[in-house]
Design brief:
This protein is 69% helix and 0% strand. It is an all-alpha fold. The protein has one domain. Helix 2 packs parallel to helix 6 and helix 5 runs antiparallel to helix 6. The termini are close together. 30% of the residues are buried.
Length: 181
């Protein structure tokens, strides 16, 4: 993506860490958590790759087209999964945003648009800004998970507050990436 190198590398690290935690969540005992974690891991690692500063490497147009196809397929999968879970609507918007950014980069790699913010970019910025605020508010009341006597301790892959932090981090990263588009 466009922008300075130092914040770009921080964005890469944040997204890669979120993707790695989502891989860990795929080991959860809760099936719905495992299912959601796979899509979130793809988003985290995909965002990390797309956030590599342009000063380091500008991928050829074909790579951006491949990203658009991968995230377009992820958006279709999220649309299918949204039949049974409203949470997948957020995955649909996220994957759609990634496909949109990749398509924009394929159309003009290495160039900023100077005609203002396109309506779709503006709508995505509003969505992710609202999601960041909503997610941040939801983190406040999360109590520490207590284990009852004799109960199995909660592992890293089953911590709801960490899953929320992961989603919040990726939404913040998505905002940053959309701003540099």
């Amino acid at each position: 993506m466009h922008g300075p190198a130092s914040p770009g590398w921080l964005l890469v690290a944040l997204c890669a860490a979120a993707g790695a935690y989502c891989l860990l969540r795929m080991r959860s005992a809760v099936e719905e958590q495992r299912r959601a974690a796979g899509g979130e891991a793809l988003m985290g690692f995909g965002m990390a790759v797309m956030a590599v500063p342009a000063a380091v490497a500008i991928p050829p147009r074909g790579v951006w087209i491949a990203y658009a196809l991968v995230f377009g397929a992820a958006a279709l999968r999220a649309l299918w999964a949204a039949r049974t879970s409203a949470h997948h609507l957020h995955h649909l918007v996220g994957a759609g945003a990634m496909a949109y950014m990749a398509a924009a980069m394929a159309a003009s790699p290495g160039h900023h648009g100077h005609g203002g913010i396109p309506p779709l970019t503006g709508a995505l910025l509003l969505y992710f800004a609202a999601y960041v605020l909503w997610s941040g508010v939801r983190l406040v009341p999360v109590a520490a998970v207590a284990t009852a006597a004799g109960a199995r301790p909660v592992g890293w892959s089953d911590r709801p507050e960490l899953a929320r932090v992961c989603r919040l981090s990726m939404a913040i990263a998505m905002l940053a990436m959309l701003l540099t588009l």
